[in-house]
Amino acid sequence: MKGVIEHYKQYLPVTDKTPVISLNEGNTPLIRARYIESLVGGDVEVYLKYEGLNPTGSFKDRGMTLALSKAVEAGSKAVICASTGNTSASAAAYAARAKIKCIVLIPEGGIALGKLAQALIHGAEVLAVKGNFDDCLNLVKEITRKHPITLVNSLNPDRIEGQKTGAFEICDSLGGAPDYHAIPVGNAGNIVAYWKGYKEYKEIGKIDSLPKMIGFQAEGAAPIVKGHIVKNPRTIATAIKIGNPASWKKAEVARDESGGLIEAVTDAEILNAYKLLASKEGIFVEPASAASVAGVLKKAKEGYFRSEKRKATEGSPERSRRAKSEKIRIACILTGHGLKDPDRAIASIKKPKVVAAKLNAVLKEIGF
Ligand code: F0G
Questions:
Q1: What are the b/e assignments for 93-132, b being 16+ CB within 10 Å?
Q2: Mutational pocket test of ligand 1: of 49, 83, 86, the residue with most ligand atoms within 8 Å of the beta carbon
Q3: What is the pLDDT of residues 178-196, one digit of tens each?
Q4: How far apart are CA 245 and CA 239, in angstroms?
Q5: How far apart are CA 107 and CA 89, in angstroms?
Q6: Three-state SS for 111?
Q7: Is 107 helix (H, G, I), strand (E, B) or coil?
Q8: Which of 119, 220, 323, 362 has a CA-to-CA distance to 2 between 20 and 30 Å?
Q9: Which of 187, 235, 286 to mutate to test the pocket of ligand 1 (most atoms within 8 A of CB)?
């Protein structure tokens, strides 16, 4: 398959002259989740967009292919980003491919092992800053204001343009828009990108409805939910441990225009969804990604989807008939692969039993 620029060229700010820096990202599977449906209950279909299957293991690759292609087109010799890990992994890989310098600022001790390994092995200059993600972002914003280095955080509009292709893929695959779009919210670029993608597809008549955007932050790092900056964000979901998101206001617009919500889920709820995705659906994600599913389960318990369906059936008889006969479709974005954060997986489950290298000992343990 082609990468997202080749595939969705006509909807992206590229020309025939743009050098395409790609790792054939995108085209990730949209997987039906029957077990999660059974927990949500009612007439729902739940779909998981497994973005962990992108080339560097997260959704960032959709935006990074465009950001690096445009940077090279503009003659840039270096890119820089602040990151909780995935942005740095992706920037490092695409910069290696583009043969330009990549500098990343990460919170010291604050990113998962796999992500650190990726940034280092792809040859980025990695600086571990004695501070959190928000400190790193302030630094890179300041640096790029004064020096000729391209910022590749989601403040760069090319990142958003590339990431909106995730919405196109969901609609192409479902033959329409889902009713709800559940997504983890950290620096808040991705919720903005998806909303842009859905709106553009509707404008050109590819879909005839829009989803409600339902975003979820971690309880200890939920500035949008709380309505104020969180100075010391805390959560086991390190990817979304952010106290002052760059796209805060735009995320609120996406929430409000779509009639959706942005709420918090606890670390316990995130870990529960994380383990459930792995053990019941066979899908290994990193903790932050499980926030979308944790949010859907929480809202289902509150009866949110049922009462929303009731609302949809009120009004015209035609609308009522349609809403009654059709199932509610929920798309959950699983943003990053579980292998990014092996420490968390091992800390969350029982260690393997140690047995003697003897047939009897093994048979006894496995109950035969
Ligand atoms: N899920 C994962 C796995 C992430 O890495 C991120 C963000 C998000 C969700 C949230 O997306 O920021 O667009 O709201 N990671 C950034 C990074 C901050 O530096 O890798 P968002």
A1: bbbbbbebebbbbbbeebbbebbbebbeebebebeebeeb
A2: 86
A3: 999 999 999 999 999 999 9
A4: 12
A5: 14
A6: coil
A7: strand
A8: 119
A9: 187
